[in-house]
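Each record in this resource describes a single protein on a pair of labelled lines. An example record follows, reproduced without changes.
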Amino acid sequence: MLPSNKRSRTHAAAGIALAGLLLAATACGSDDAVRDAAPPAVPDDLECFSGSLSGAGSSAQENAMTTWIAGYQSACEGARVYYDSIGSGGGRNQFIDGAVTFAGTDAAIDQEENADALERCGGSDTVNLPTYTVAIAVVFNLEGVDSLNLRPDTLAKIFDQRITRWDDPEIAADNPDADLPDLEITPVNRADDSGTTENFTRYLETAAPDGWPHEAGGQWPITPRESAQGNSGVADTVKRAEGSIGYVEMSHVHGMSTVSVGVGDSFVDISPEAAAQVVSDSPHSENATNEYDLALDLDYGTTAEGAYPLVLVSYEAVCLDYADGDEAERVKAFLRYVVSEEGQEAVSAETGSTPINDALREQLLTSIDAVS
């Protein structure tokens, strides 16, 4: 339960970057590594709880959750926050089943899943809270080639396994200065039900309708050449395999070569600023579950100059009403830190994410306050 007083200024932790990016507090592990890391800054009026809080889901949020958990637990000694990065689909399932208090998901819980969660939420709706915005990188491993320009249609054909060699004329046309080898392409996709996959395939479906004949979804739609579990699994596979190409949330790039994607007549490098341009122009979804649901309708097919349309908005999905009042207060206290300016800036420094703006923060706090 929350104490009556707010956290005082004298206990504010210094904002020092975390030494590592691996999640150390999960539903099946210890939080000692998080507690040993230098904590990020926290708000002067941080609300603390005593007890435990559990979430599960998006591996794209894995590195962000490391930072948020480190900051919150360092400031709130009685709190234990656990997060199991099992993938968005697994997180939504565990939330609906009542195994965790909140789900991290890169695809907002939709109307059908909301209906499934009614029993878990005591008859109330689910609320999607967009807390983490980051670009999706297309990464590749090609000796002697550090960067590539790829149009949406070309990307679609590569991942649909119709462009199969690196010196294909369609790739060469947009990369005249690259020494492209006569080497087989190995596309690497997610093996698990993934919000990153859903965002990536929705981009291909929207930006390359002629090149991508499959419906967007969290499960990879064709028999894979190579697959891996989680964002970190895809990144590790691409790092090891010459000639491979995959897609990962930006904080998992770790020095790998990335693709500049075609937008209109130009090519745009991945960056937080280019991703922010897409999100700022995106309206709230018409399929929102209720007035407090802040799911966004992203424009993956934008041709706006300088915009990077391969964007992932990751949500925390919570109940509007919990049967246990203490459970509601714990998740509200933690999420207020997550959406705070300090929480967002700490994560941005670690992952290259785009901090939410003040207008969205105000909406998020209103929705968090509505949870009971």
User: Anything to note?
Assistant: The domain at 136-277 is CATH 3.40.190.10 (D-Maltodextrin-Binding Protein; domain 2). The two ends are 13 Å apart (CA to CA).
